[in-house]
Specification:
heterotrimer, A mainly alpha (151), B mainly alpha (504), C alpha/beta (318), A: 151 residues, mainly alpha, 2 domains, 5 helices, 70% helix, flat, B: 504 residues, two-stranded antiparallel sheet, 20 helices, 2 strands, 1% strand, globular, transmembrane (chain B)
Chain lengths: 151, 504, 318
């Protein structure tokens, strides 16, 4: 069973992930040389076997656990979403600007009470923080940070 | 040797050198604490500045940074479950739970004492045992390295003793991901999914940050009020310093054994220093009377990992100074700096340039002494700062630092994307009860295992059955015996405990 | 309406040309990013580090070394060809790597022709080295043993489809012997294998021979003439084997970099190569100083492309 009393069958899901990963990598095997093939083939077979083992266990003696149990799933998803957008927009838009918005909005989304005042405060905090690290990394350490349309 | 040692010690204690080393240890600490900035990169960043210094000062500075960086990794490991450097992976296992139980300061101080102490032991080994140890290290060839990785994989058995199947699957998953990139033998482009950036493989740091940090950040984001209550729980007792001190020195066996393990792993050029802390952790758990407490906040876990990883620094210098073969990437950089200064590592270093060599070793000793002080003062400040910051600011800020850090690896946006996607996958796997340790272990050991396997096979090609080469060499045989013992131990332990339950 | 548009365009073009003239006339105005595509401590890194200060002197600006490691250099080069061609991003490039990788790999991220060579400044010829306790005192003994025991001798080297690898194949052909090449990830991993006697010999670079001269015996060097850092080592040519091979390293710019910028960069490299302190430092480490400017380098690379295509076909790897 996938679910029991709100808990998920971790062996079933885990096993499926392992089997799928093995299959994905198997499919990606191109024309490898003999030596380049030894190790991948062995590992893919081992992973497949373990994945199947987990699937078998999921029928015989499954381990149920509540996954992603938390107070406010919405906050977690907000941070995850901001993180994803952040990473994807870094190069096109530019490091400093993207991070400025992301950090500020990130703090804002975690506020207990979101008001205009906290929004402003969070943008100030975000601005200072991003400016500080941006200057250190790009001026002092001379690390070329992504520059897109903006900086 | 005695006279040179004495004169070198005096040379090291000049005001100029002491200041450089102080700077090195502190800067290294900060760099190591930032997830993404590895010890290797920290050392590389400072090399250009050392060209204008005399050899002794330059080497002392680089050595100090190296020591500081390896130590600094413990801070982020303890405070935000992110190994600041790969050598602090094991510190997250018990360091972070300690922080969550309000014992963060104790964890940091324990790490400080263990790191500095481990480094001191490593330096002693370096000064007095370099030459014989280097000879032993040379006897390890590809088949031996293969068996070492198998031994490393048996650590999975301890890390995941309750979920063996998941642990093994995790390890295999890590091994799978480690194959992305160019095959070490044959040069094939494998599993790059059409992206040229993947030819370099999945960056270890990206995955580490992703697997360890992001899940915690997301979890905290979803549980803010619970987090707030914990922040208040922070220990107010005095005597934390003393308690941490005794954590390390009350049970000297753990501390000394871990340091020796660290030094030895550091001596082996092909192993890199990253697995030392995990091996030491494993042995500490095995030797402990309460092995189940490891992973829940047992300070001995922190002692083991931090003593080991700092001893690797000195261990890595052994083959470098005796044979000119660096034992770990930062040692390779220091080597480059040596060469550019006109020094030639090798026997010359102990004869005509002996004073510089011994000065370097002594400087490592001094740097570790400095670490006691810098670590405690710095640790206290960092700890106070981090616990003062409310979680709602901390979470996005840490994510910001991890993005900065993973980008700094090689200025490739793919590394940042891998970090985040890895984070999501790591979070899912964690919720499904897959411990991140085995996966990361597989990722680290994969390339070493493959090289050992295929190079060993090529070595054996002249025999009728090439595979026999793995079973006929003396060191290999010793390793195989150790592996059987190591793999069998948790099984034996389970068996014994079931037997006890059966009696009741 | 059209006349207005035309005049606006003319002014824009005029301004743009003044602007770009300005930039080019004063190259370099800001820091130059020098990308190193290999591990710190390796030959490429050592060369770049040795060049850093002299280049800063010549250019009177900062030269920042960045690492983009991975895929035997491919990751760094694939990024180079996408960088802005203004001369502020350059990378070290290696032969035969940039030739062999696009030939052998489906998608290395760059094509050999896309890399614009500015200068080839040094080379490390291959050497055949054995342990100092080895039974082989001369190349003759080595070859004879190999002929009597085909497949027994193992030669370690750095990388697959690298100068060491191809060199072993070439030597096998020329000497009509059969040895097994064992690739290691970098010369730094190959050397311990020899010192620990896990392989019979090494087909490695001159720099390794110099570094470990007390532990290794170098039987021959694959260069036109003897290498100054190892004056007692005969060349393969002297001993009757037409085998010349090694890694060449140079500076490269993204495709489309203006010619005069390339010229300035090339001149700087030449100047650095002529500085006695630099020259001696590198030669002492075992490097061969080479001075090939942009056109010469391009010709050389084209030559080598044809050469390697042939070799790979002959050995059956293509």
């Amino acid at each position: 069973m996938l679910k029991k009393d709100g808990a998920y069958n971790t062996d079933l899901i885990g096993g499926a992930i392992m089997v799928l990963s093995a299959a994905l990598f198997y499919q990606q095997i191109g024309n490898f040389t003999t030596f380049g093939l030894i190790f991948p083939r062995a590992i893919i077979i081992i992973l497949l076997a373990l994945g199947i083992g987990l699937l078998i266990k999921s029928k015989l003696n499954p381990y149920y656990a509540e996954i992603f149990e938390m107070e406010e799933m919405s906050k977690m998803l907000l941070i995850a979403g901001i993180g994803l957008g952040w990473v994807l927009l870094l190069k096109p838009v530019g490091f400093a600007v993207t991070s400025f918005f992301a950090v500020s909005l990130g703090i804002y989304s975690l506020e207990e009470e979101r008001t205009k005042k906290t929004l402003l405060k969070d943008f100030i905090i975000g601005g200072c923080e991003v400016a500080f690290f941006y200057l250190i990394f790009s001026r002092l350490l001379l690390v070329p940070l992504p520059q897109g349309i903006l900086f | 040797m005695g006279a040179t040692l004495l004169s070198s010690t005096i040379a090291v204690f000049s005001i100029k050198n002491l200041l450089f080393m102080l700077f090195g240890v502190s800067a290294g600490m900060v760099a190591g604490a930032l997830p993404g900035l590895t010890a290797t990169m920290s050392v590389a960043l400072i090399v250009p500045f050392t060209f204008t210094m005399d050899p002794v000062s330059g080497m002392a500075t680089l050595g100090a940074i190296y020591c500081g960086a390896i130590f600094g990794g413990a801070f982020s490991a303890i405070l935000v479950n992110t190994p600041g450097t790969p050598s602090s992976i094991g510190t997250t296992f018990d360091g972070y739970p300690m922080a969550q139980q309000g014992k963060g300061e104790e964890a940091i101080f324990t790490a400080t004492f263990a790191s500095a102490g481990g480094g001191l032991i490593g330096t002693v080994i370096l000064i007095f045992l370099s030459v014989p140890l280097a000879r032993v290290a040379l006897r390890f060839g590809p088949p031996e390295y293969f068996w070492i990785t198998i031994f490393g994989l048996t650590i999975i058995a301890s890390l995941a003793s309750k979920n063996m199947l998941k642990g093994l699957a995790g390890g295999a998953f890590g091994l799978l991901i480690s194959m992305i990139g160019i095959a070490p033998i044959g040069g094939d482009v494998r599993f790059t999914m059409g992206l040229p950036a993947f030819q370099g493989g999945v960056q270890l740091i990206s995955v580490l940050i992703g697997f360890f940090c992001i899940p915690e950040m997301l979890r905290i984001a979803g549980n803010l009020t619970a987090q707030k209550m914990q922040a208040v729980n922070v220990e107010k007792e005095s005597g934390v310093l003393a308690r941490s001190f005794w954590n390390v020195f009350r049970k000297p066996f753990n501390f000394i054994r871990s340091s020796i393990i660290g030094a030895f792993v550091g001596i082996l050029p092909g192993a890199g220093g990253n697995i030392a802390n995990l091996v030491a952790y494993n042995e500490a758990q095995r030797a402990s009377k309460e092995p189940e407490t490891f992973g829940t906040g047992n300070p001995q876990g922190v002692v083991a990992t931090e003593a080991a990883n700092n001893a690797t620094v000195e261990g890595g210098m052994v083959p470098l100074l005796t044979l000119g073969i660096p034992g770990a990437p930062p040692a390779a950089i220091i080597y480059g700096a040596l060469m550019l200064q006109g020094l030639r590592p090798g026997p010359e270093l102990f004869s005509s340039s002996a004073h510089i060599t011994y000065a370097f070793m002594v400087s490592l000793f001094v740097a570790n002494l400095m670490m006691f002080v810098v670590g405690i003062l710095g640790g206290r400040s960092i700890f106070k700062i981090v616990t003062m910051i409310p979680a709602k600011i901390l979470v996005p800020s840490i994510i910001f630092l991890t993005i900065l850090g993973s980008y700094s690896i090689r200025n490739n946006i793919m590394d940042v994307i891998v970090m985040l996607i890895g984070g999501f996958i790591g979070y899912l796997l964690k919720e499904l009860n897959f411990h991140p340790g085995p996966i990361v272990l597989g990722l680290i050991l994969g390339p070493i295992a493959e090289k050992g396997l295929v190079q060993g096979y090529l070595m054996g090609l002249s025999r009728p059955n090439p595979w026999t080469i793995f079973f006929t060499r003396p060191i290999s045989i010793v390793l195989i015996v150790i592996i059987i013992f190591s793999a069998g131990w948790p099984v034996y332990r389970e068996f014994k405990s079931r037997l006890k339950k059966g009696d009741n | 309406m059209n006349k207005r548009l035309l005049s606006i365009l003319l002014v824009a073009v005029f301004l743009l040309s003044i602007f770009s003239l300005n930039v080019m006339a004063e190259f370099p105005e800001k820091a130059i990013n020098y990308i190193v595509c290999f591990n710190p401590g390796g030959e490429s890194d050592l060369t770049a580090r040795a060049q850093q200060k002299p280049l800063e002197e010549v250019f009177d600006t900062d030269v920042v070394i960045q690492y983009k490691i991975g895929g035997g250099g491919a990751v760094g080069w694939s990024e180079l060809v996408q960088a802005k061609p203004d001369g502020y991003t350059v990378a070290g490039f290696n032969l035969p790597h940039i030739i062999l990788q696009p030939l052998v790999r489906d998608n290395p991220g760059y094509d050999t022709k896309e890399i614009k060579p500015v200068f080839i400044f040094e080379a490390t010829p291959n050497i055949l080295a054995v342990h100092k306790d080895s039974q082989f005192e001369t190349l003759e003994e080595f070859v004879n043993y190999a002929k009597e025991n085909p497949g027994v001798i193992t030669l370690g080297g750095s990388g697959s489809y690298s100068a060491n690898h191809l060199g072993t194949l070439e030597f096998n052909q020329t000497a009509d012997i059969k040895t097994t090449y064992i690739p290691f990830t970098g010369s730094g991993e190959a050397v311990p294998a020899l010192l620990g006697k896990h392989v019979t010999g090494l087909m490695t670079y001159t720099t390794m021979g110099v570094r470990h001269s007390d532990e290794m015996r170098v039987l021959a060097v694959a260069a036109e003439e003897r290498v100054p850092a190892m004056p007692d080592v005969p060349t393969f040519k002297e001993l009757g084997y037409d085998y010349i091979e090694g890694a060449y390293r140079g500076l490269a710019a993204p495709p489309g970099t203006p010619d005069d910028v390339v010229q300035k960069l090339a001149e700087a490299n030449l100047a650095v190569n002529e500085m006695p302190s630099f020259k001696n430092k590198l030669q002492d480490m075992g490097f061969q100083i080479i001075n090939m400017g942009p056109e010469e380098s391009e010709e050389f690379i084209d030559d080598r492309i044809t050469y390697y295509e042939e070799i790979l076909k002959e050995v059956g790897l293509l």
